[in-house]
Amino acid sequence: MRILTILTCCLGERRRHLKTASKTLLSRKMYPTTLTQLARANPFSAPLFSLRQVEEPQQSTTEHGHSNRRFAAAAVLEGDSCEFGSQKYFLLCGFGGILSCDSDVSCEFGSMKYYALCGFGGILSCGLTHTAVVPLDLVKCRIQVNPDKYKTIFNGFSVTLREDGVRGLGKGWAPTFIGYSMQGLCKFGFYEVFKILYSDLLGEENTYLWRTSLYLASSASAEFFADVALAPMEACKVRIQTQAGYANTLRECAPKMYAEEGLWAFYKGVVPLWMRQIPYTMMKFACFERTVEALYKYVVPKPRSDCSKPEQLVVTFVAGYIAGVFCAVVSHPADSVVSVLNKEKGSTAGQVLKRLGPRGVWKGLVARIIMIGTLTALQWFIYDSVKVYFRLPRPPPPEMPESLKKKLGLAE
What we know:
Elements: H1 2-30, H2 33-40, H3 61-64, H4 87-100, H5 112-132, H6 134-145, H7 153-164, H8 173-202, H9 204-209, H10 211-242, H11 250-261, H12 264-267, H13 270-299, H14 309-343, H15 349-360, H16 365-389, H17 402-408
């Protein structure tokens, strides 16, 4: 009985082998070997697969009506430079995408990307330049708050070096970098926003006729928000630089100020900061824009479109320095008030202004002209360089619209 059972099992197993073999032969007849290999390498039908060249038996052209070919998951046909899906394939596809895009500009004028990159340019232009001139700013602030001790620029540097050493000239660099980076983000970013917004409200003809007013209004609107971002760090900077022994770092100064006077300590100087920075920024942008326009019209011997990028950046630097000199003169009285106000506790802007008098508010003007002139020129140079690097739209100086020329009888 046991022997019979064993024989029955063996016969059943043999039948299963025969069925499997017949199915295999049938599949080979129905599906070519190359298609079977492609199905095995299909990523949609198998979770694990490998890409490799598969050697296939040659097939006759008379039998199938076409020439012999070899297939794999990433086949290379005659004349192809690389495999489909290889690293070289993806690299060249990406390069083709770059070439297919507009080579002149990277984004649309007035788009979110445009505003974001303008804000980034503002961070670099303001944060880096203000941090670079911290030693000069420190001496300028000390001349303003203690003119009896720090009489001139050179005297201020010598006294500071004698008392604090070389490291003392770097006091306040951290709040300067953080504060003016935030200010630059809002100043340049919002300036572009408001300029386009107000221009759309005015229309093309009025934008040209009232362009100086447009620059003034746009820059004033942007600076209002920029000073709110700057005020806390500006208060810490002045306290570190002008009040000996109070604190040497931002980490020491900010908690101490908050513990003594609360949140108001960081914003009590925002109104005089508006008094200083809004006129400064209005002059900075309006004077720069009109100076660039005048340079291309009367000084540069060829149109802006014919100038190379380095030549345009030189014009930007020169116009920025000229604007910076005017900025320093316009904003200096308010700057003196801010410096004294942030040093003293419990004082108001009116009290400080009355105590300084007409002559006192102009102390340190020479240092401020040197600092602000250089600073403004570098800021515009860096900002314009960022625009060039990222291929942002850079509209040329404004020209009178054709419709306005016809109205005024100036059209040919």
